[in-house]
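Cross-posting from the modeling subforum.

Setting up a comparison between two proteins and wanted a second pair of eyes on the formatting. Protein 1 (sequence, then structure tokens):
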Amino acid sequence: MSKSPEGGGPVHTLGWWPRRRSALLDVGLAGLAGLECAAGAYGMVGDRLHLGAPAAVVSAVLGALAGATLVVRRRWPAVPVLVGLVFVPGLFGMVLLVVSLYTLAATWEWPSRRRRVVALSAIALAETFGMALVYMLAPTQVPAEETPPTWVFVLLAALVSVGLTVPPVVTGLYVGARRRLVESLTDRALGLEAELDLLAEQASERARRARLEERTRIAREMHDVVAHRVSLMVVHAGALERIITKDPEKAQASAKLMGEVGRQALDELREILGVLRMAEPAAAAAESTGGLTEVTGLVEQSRAAGMAVSLTVSGERRPYRGDAEQTAYRVVQEGLTNAHKHAGGARVSVLLAFVPNGVRVAVVNDCPGGAEPVRLPSGGNGLVGMRERVVSLGGSFDAGPEPDGGFRVEAVLPSRLAVPSERLA
């Protein structure tokens, strides 16, 4: 008992038979061929050769055993053919010969074993032709003048031999070729089904990765927008708490600035949430907020919050792609946010340099002095996100401590991200 290749229920097998009905068919054919061979052998030995009843019975038994060889026709297809050729001279065993020739042609590989099929079929054809011709040309009681010409007997013998051998061989070849074709198509269909399953799994995995990347991108955008603005608001709130009684006018200015920063944070959050409803979120997000022209505003906001920050711009200014400009903007924003968090009171320098190989942005703070840094929560993912952004655009990113105890955040974006000059017209 084995399982079907399609994954269905079990298939019961008996020896070399794939199904029970195949075994019953072979047993039935063997019984029919055995009866014919037994009857033919008994008649030839008893009636024509007159060898007596015991010899006739032995011949009948041998004939029955010869017909029974059809039971093994699927396992050893040449055996019943060879046995059938033995009985052809006695002009019996036709069922055995026809079925065995069909099985031989249907079950043996073609064309790898065509020589054996052709050889055994040719022997059967020649033997049946010779026996039929001998039988027809045997002396009879018919007068010579009433006997047909010899060519008539030759033609009849040829027709008989062809009728007994060619149709079963051709039919067997056709059935065998058709069976092999069906098996080949079945195997190919199973292979294609497996390939489609693999492609479906790969598509599902790509979709999962795309969703994960989109969630990561959105989280990064939310971090970039919220961290810097909220940091400024916390710094202003701390300053406002200290000066509200000493300098009401300055406290009022700080409160006004806090409102402006909060509104900017809300506007940027609305833009990011609006991007989620657009067909091309990545492209829209790249152009939503932030750019090299807005770096000055970032510096002014930090300066208004009490940070000693300077901005240096060098080189010939040139426009870059939206995603590149936004990335440079976010690097400066992240650097200033880190300075607010960890380097309170330290001097901070912002560098924006348009160099031949691209654009370079850097935020460097000195070693923190006596002022205590603002205690703000940190997820630890800001610099990691910046590195991913810059590297994805083909740039380089570096962040780490300086020899004098300060800290540097620097990124270089390649010049291939610049907008061609002809598009500026």
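Protein 2 (same layout):
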Amino acid sequence: MDTTSTTPPTHADLSTSLLQLLSNPLVLYHTAPYLPVPALLALGASNKSFQSLVHGTPGVFRHLDLTQIKAAQFQLAAIDHGGEVWRNVQLDENVTEDDFYGGPLRGIFSKLQRQHILQDVQTLILDGLSVTSDLVSEIICSDTFNVRILSVREVHHLNERKLQQALLYVIRPSRAPNTPKLEALYIFGPKDVAPVSRFERHLNRYPAGIAPIDTIPSYGGVTYSPGAQIGAKWNQKSGDTLADEIKKNGDKWYQRSGKVIAKPPSEEWAETIRACEGIISFDAVLCHGPRHTHPISADKLQKSTPWYKQREAHLPPRIATCALRSCCKCKTSPEGSSMFGRSPIEHFPLLAPPPLHSSTGKAAKTPSAEDTPDKKLLVRCLECLWNRYCESCHKWWCEDCYEVPDPAFHSSVAPQPWESVGSTTGGNPENDVKCAECIYRTQLMCKVCGGGYCTVHNEGSTLTTAGRHAIDGWCSRSGRRARELY
């Protein structure tokens, strides 16, 4: 029997050109958000085929990140030192402050509009840039833009009060149908860490002349000591671990780890978010604690009425800044936890980073199954946790489980336990407050001098001695002794 041997296909037969690969709309759609704008424009300028592919395929410029664009950076040194830029601007008396600080981004938007790219942008990232309130208002209100997700975290020269007025105007009852186009606004959280590839982290984290063993063993024929190479190797592992943790640490709201927003936003922002509910979402939500609900009128008050439902305990709207577990005593809360998919979508904040492959508010709020298996969310403001929350272990007690230490402060008419408890924070709810268990675990007595010390704040302290013993050999109570030079 005559058999014909077939030769396996060679590597050249299996190879696919970049144009053929990106011609698949699915591949191009999932690849474009990872490429910076200059790379996409350079790819489109290489030849006519790529130009037709990049500029003719919908969704290529849907996700636009300008944070790393050099032309978008605003250099303040030219203003502070009377540079050429500032002198040229002074020649035109019609230039306003907003036009001046928003000039770099306006120039970029003008170029993108001439290239018919600006109308395709649906997710716009401007974190850390010079962004004025007038520019944000134009992005929200102008027909030139079709932005659905806008991120302006940690931007400069932004007048928040004017931005609040623009948001209230764009959601007015008399607005045009299908407006506003904006669905999500990132403004309260920190900007995302710039993505760095593992290979770049592998090389760029070491001083000059030192590299890990498996990358560059020597320079110019000089081999460095094994100790330096081992140290660089461990630095690489630490950097990779830190980068992986940052990548996985997206859904902080669901991790129940205390403060999510470091600086509480103003009361005006709380009113703005309440007015925008159901229309524009933010990377923050309102606190739904029982003290924010409508209080019971005086004629309906009873002796069994909880203190937090009385008029004296009522609080105006506040933005929730702390992500919590359930009450450590009753394992629940008066307002209950919100579960994604069952509770109203308005109860959930936008999650960082903004989604790459979708430009809808719901996609920006959807938690990942890896970090949030139960998808339960319980958040509160600092006022609703006053003196009932431990900054160390993140345990807290709800209003029903709270017990006033001194019965003399009880009142049958209007008990106010949030004022009667002896506070250790000096009247500031943002200061560090610990529960009895954490105080017992961290506040110890030095066995050398008999003085009290904290294992958290005393650097170098142990379970038996204060920090000064571990560092200088002297008690913390006796103070630091000056060295006698003569």
